[in-house]
């Protein structure tokens, strides 16, 4: 069926959702928009789906949400009755249509006699993960597009352990989703009927209290927090999202009293009016926090993204504020955890830290120094969750910390996704640790560089918008595979790791198997110890290039980063 025919099919549907009707009308004479919205179905994978809100099979709307949930429901229908009746926990963020999508999902589940447990108002992604474990539901649904702009929303499915649904189950759900032939003929149940039949159960403060109690265990040195936490000045912004209430609660519970919220960004605003790109990776998201920080003479600024799974920070340095990267924040958190546990005599002999393959090797150097194993997994926090689940089953390791370079960290595994609420309270404690030594977090990372060497990393994203985007992304990955670079900026490639082929090839041509799930990622290990990785994003139309290197000083390391970036650009653009 052509995209025009698919568009007309939607236009002719009776009783369409009002927001979908408006979207259809807006693209009536816009063939380019119709083609993008109606040519191919929205991608549904291990991370669920994420896209622009609007009409179409390639858009987030009540019908694509119904289709995704129908796939989950059919999968749960195949389970033993006891597992099916465990039900599904559902949460949502501050975005447009988030609450509507949450109740839409509950209605489809109810049509299959599957109970849902829906939060009474917006809650963070990590609390949804916690709720799955706490309530012992079989699955969880989080309605969020994380740090994307306002036009987006998304749908993530979690498994019984509170982590994102494992690949095997996710593939089955995807199969069921694709078997839904008529997106407009999915049975659903209204709210009143769901409530009267106990198929829709509201949850809220009961889960909050249990979650806050768990986060209270993240604090390591209570005496330090009590002595410094009352005077250290913090500024916090939830970037119009879900972090406002939980971040305040856990900071106060820990003993941090001297903090201020960025008032205008504490409003749960789906427009993200003060920051169009609510991503703590971006410097501009800290503009308002810096103004308040200057007024309050704050020591540390903390920002969490709209679903409060990612955290960024800026530290007072001289007369201004210095932003830290996700890799730097993770290294500071890790070093503090290991040092504090060493001093307390609680550092286990079988401790393990888990990070993604595109994250800093500074963390590896720190872990090695403390006799702790560093486990590398593919990009996606679900793989960190899988390792935790494995350790619990085998006792092989004790999980100590997990992170991704993209500003996601997990301290304690009562949550199985990145958790910016846990990270907020521990980062505040780390800042107090350094302040007690008349140092800042910036001083702290410089001290780690002095001890372990200067590590520098950079991520470059290339966008591929439009209908042709997926093919262009695939073509670019094929280009790198078919014409393997022998060197970047004059530095030889000594090893190529292809996670799609699950094999690593060294410069002698010897091939070794990579024992990880199949993933479209290439990683080049260079002869000087630097590395370069390339992967299509799983949630956005872009290819990401990662570069990591080390040197005795910042100038040399950053010079190498720039050279490698230029070499990547030249190779990518070459005919």
TrEMBL record:
Enzyme Commission number: 5.4.2.2
Catalytic class of the enzyme: isomerase
SUPFAM superfamilies named among the record's database cross-references: Phosphoglucomutase, C-terminal domain, Phosphoglucomutase, first 3 domains
Lineage top rank: taxon: Bacteria
Ranges for domain Alpha-D-phosphohexomutase C-terminal: 510-557
Biological process (GO), any one: glucose metabolic process
Reaction catalysed by this enzyme: alpha-D-glucose 1-phosphate = alpha-D-glucose 6-phosphate
UniProt cofactor(s): Mg(2+)
Keywords: Carbohydrate metabolism, Glucose metabolism, Isomerase, Magnesium, Metal-binding, Phosphoprotein
GO molecular function: magnesium ion binding; phosphoglucomutase activity; phosphopentomutase activity
Domain (Alpha-D-phosphohexomutase alpha/beta/alpha) ranges: 42-180, 225-314, 326-452
Biological pathway: Lipid metabolism; Glycolipid metabolism; diglucosyl-diacylglycerol biosynthesis
Similarity comment: Belongs to the phosphohexose mutase family.
Protein name, entry field: Phosphoglucomutase
Species the sequence originates in: Lacticaseibacillus brantae DSM 23927
The organism's taxonomic lineage, starting at the top: Bacteria, Bacillati, Bacillota, Bacilli, Lactobacillales
């Amino acid at each position: 069926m052509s995209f025009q025919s698919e568009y007309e099919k939607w236009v002719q549907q009776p009783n369409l959702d009002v927001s979908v009707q408006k979207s259809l009308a807006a693209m009536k004479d816009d063939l380019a928009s119709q083609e993008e919205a109606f040519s191919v179905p929205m991608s549904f994978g291990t991370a669920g789906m994420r896209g622009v809100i609007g009409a179409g099979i390639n858009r987030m709307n009540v019908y694509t949400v119904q289709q995704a949930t129908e796939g989950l429901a059919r999968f749960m229908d195949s389970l033993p009755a006891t597992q099916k009746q465990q039900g599904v926990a559902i949460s949502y963020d501050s975005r447009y249509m988030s609450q509507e999508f949450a109740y839409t999902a509950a209605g489809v589940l109810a049509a299959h006699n599957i109970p849902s447990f829906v939060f009474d108002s917006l809650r963070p992604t990590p609390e949804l993960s916690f709720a799955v474990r706490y309530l012992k539901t079989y699955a969880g649904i989080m309605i969020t597009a994380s740090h994307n702009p306002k036009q987006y929303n998304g749908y993530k499915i979690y498994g019984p352990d509170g982590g994102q649904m494992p690949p095997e189950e996710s593939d089955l759900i995807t199969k069921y989703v694709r078997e839904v032939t008529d997106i407009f003929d999915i049975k659903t149940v209204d709210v009143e009927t769901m409530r009267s039949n106990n198929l829709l159960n509201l949850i809220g403060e009961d889960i909050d209290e249990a979650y806050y109690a768990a986060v209270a265990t993240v604090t390591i040195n209570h005496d330090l927090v009590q002595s410094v936490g009352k005077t250290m000045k913090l500024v916090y912004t939830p970037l119009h999202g879900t972090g406002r209430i939980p971040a305040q609660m856990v900071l106060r519970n820990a003993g941090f009293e001297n903090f201020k919220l960025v008032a205008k960004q504490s409003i749960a605003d789906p427009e993200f009016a003060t920051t169009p790109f609510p991503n703590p990776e971006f410097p501009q998201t800290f503009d308002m926090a810096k103004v308040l920080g200057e007024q309050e003479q704050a020591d540390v600024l903390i920002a969490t993204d709209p679903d409060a799974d990612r955290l960024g920070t800026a530290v007072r340095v001289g007369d201004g504020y210095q932003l830290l990267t996700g890799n730097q924040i993770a290294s500071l958190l890790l070093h503090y955890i290991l040092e504090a546990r060493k001093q307390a005599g609680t550092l286990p002999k079988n401790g393990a830290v888990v990070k993604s393959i595109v994250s800093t090797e500074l963390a590896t150097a720190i872990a090695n120094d403390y006799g702790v194993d560093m486990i590398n997994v593919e990009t996606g926090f679900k793989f960190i969750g899988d390792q935790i689940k494995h350790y619990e089953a085998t006792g092989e390791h004790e999980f100590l910390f997990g992170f991704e370079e993209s500003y996601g960290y997990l301290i304690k595994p009562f949550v199985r996704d990145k958790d910016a609420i846990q990270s907020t309270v521990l980062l505040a404690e780390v800042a107090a640790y350094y302040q007690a030594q008349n140092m800042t977090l910036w001083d702290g990372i410089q001290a780690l560089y002095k001890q372990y060497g200067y590590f520098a990393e950079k991520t470059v994203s290339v966008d591929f918008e439009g209908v042709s985007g997926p093919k262009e992304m695939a073509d670019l990955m094929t280009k790198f595979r078919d014409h393997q670079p022998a060197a970047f900026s004059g530095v030889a490639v000594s090893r190529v790791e292809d996670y799609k082929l699950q094999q690593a090839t060294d410069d002698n041509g010897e091939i070794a198997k990579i024992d990880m799930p199949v993933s479209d990622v290439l990683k080049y290990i260079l002869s000087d110890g630097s590395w370069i990785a390339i992967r299509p994003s799983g949630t956005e139309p872009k290819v990401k290039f990662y570069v990591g290197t080390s040197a005795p000083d910042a100038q040399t390391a950053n010079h190498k980063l720039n050279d490698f970036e230029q070499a990547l650009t030249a190779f990518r653009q070459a005919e």
